Amino acid sequence: MEISDFLRKREPLPTLPGDYKENAEWEEERLFNAWIKKYPAEKCTDIKERLQYIRKYALLYPDFDGEEWFPSQAAINYYEIRQERLEYCKLSEADFYSLKEIQESIKELGIQPKPTFEFIVYLWDILKRWWEHGDVELVTERIKRLFGLIEKQPDVHLKLDVSVGRKHIKFENDRFIKSLFAVFLNSNVEGLNSVETVKPDKLEIDYILIKTLLDNLPIKYTKEKKGKYTKAERIFSLSVLWLTGEIAHGKNDCPLDTETFNNGTFDLLMRRYKDMPLPAVFALH
After folding, report:
1. Can you state the angle between helices 259-272 and 231-243, rounded to 10 degrees?
2. Rounded CA gap, 17 and 34, in Å?
3. Are residues 5 and 134 in contact, defined by beta-carbon separation less than 8 angstroms?
4. What's the start-to-end Cα distance of the chain, in Å?
5. Parallel, antiparallel, or unpaired: how do β-strands 195-198 and 135-138 relate?
6. Which one, of 123, 27, 12, 9, lies nearest residue 73 by Cα?
7. Strand, helix or coil at 164?
8. What is the pLDDT of residues 44-62, one digit of tens each?
């Protein structure tokens, strides 16, 4: 399975200390309660309900300053500009609650609709930005990463394809290609400190969205599972892709009208990326 350069850059967090969870939960609760006091008392219960799934997810991925761990404030940061995020994602609660398929699947999975909607918006807001804006990488770092791949697979045949407009000039001489990049690294060639934009693949984004939801929502199975995913999980996942526009559809279409195609979409995502380490979904900058 090949994954994009964008995801290869997502470094895993260091191993958490044994006492992290207990300390982090206490500290996160303290910070959250101090923050929520700025809202009217009648709104606090609603806010807590909306953010409960995001808060639980954010506790898994704390901030790290190189020495100490700090509970992520992702839920608070999300809510502070919630309306802007909804507008950017082009999602609405009205559409969410009016989509019968997702509401029925949510009920069958034993999860709550309000925090589920907020978790979807939280994830999609970030993933959409990953897809549309990507991240930057120094040309030097990209070449170093290329050499790392070559060192791991020294016998693999190399190809270099340079495009000039619609014309392509290809090089397949291994020795020339390796020496070309070696010259770059061992000299002060202009442009080495410039940057390239790296973006994830669109299907990677869809997979991360669905798999993160399925792995982190507090799903309760009321029936014995037959296979890796239940019918309710499939319908829920396809409905999420439908809401976010990742499955193209007309205004009055139903997510299950083209069930064969949609099930194929779900199976493709789950099969294609089943071995991909799931990255933490947080804003890049």
Report:
1. 100
2. 26
3. no
4. 28
5. antiparallel
6. 27
7. strand
8. 999 999 999 999 999 988 8
